[in-house]
Amino acid sequence: MNKKRLAAPFGLWMLLFTVIPLGMVLWFALTDDAGNFTLQNLPKIAEYSDSFWYSLYVGALSTFLCLILAYPLAFSISRRSERAQRTLVMLVMLPMWMNSLLRITALKSIISEKGFLNRLLELAGLPTQHMMGTTGAIVLGMVFDFLPFMVLPLYSVMTKIDGRVLEAAQDLGANAFQVLFRVVLPLSVPGITAGITMVFVPSVSSFVVSKLLGSAQTTTMIGEVIEFLFKGSAPPYYNVGAVLSLVLMVLMLLCMAVMSVFDKDSDEMEGMMA
Amino acid sequence: MKTLSKVYNGLIFAFLYAPIVVLIVFSFNSTSSRVKWSGFSLRWYEKLFGNAEILDCLKVTLEIALLSALIATVIGVLSALGIFAMNGKLRKAFLAVNNIPMVNPEIVTGISLMLLFVFVYRSVGLLQPGFTTLLIAHITFNIPYVILQVMPKLRQLDPRLYEAALDLGCPPTRAFCKVVLPEIVPGVLTGALMAFTMSLDDFVISYFNSGSSAQTLSVLIYNMTKKPITPEINALSTLMFGSIMVLLLVINIRQIKDMGQKANRS
Question: Which residues of A touch B208 (CB under 8 A)?
Answer without folding.
Answer: 230-231
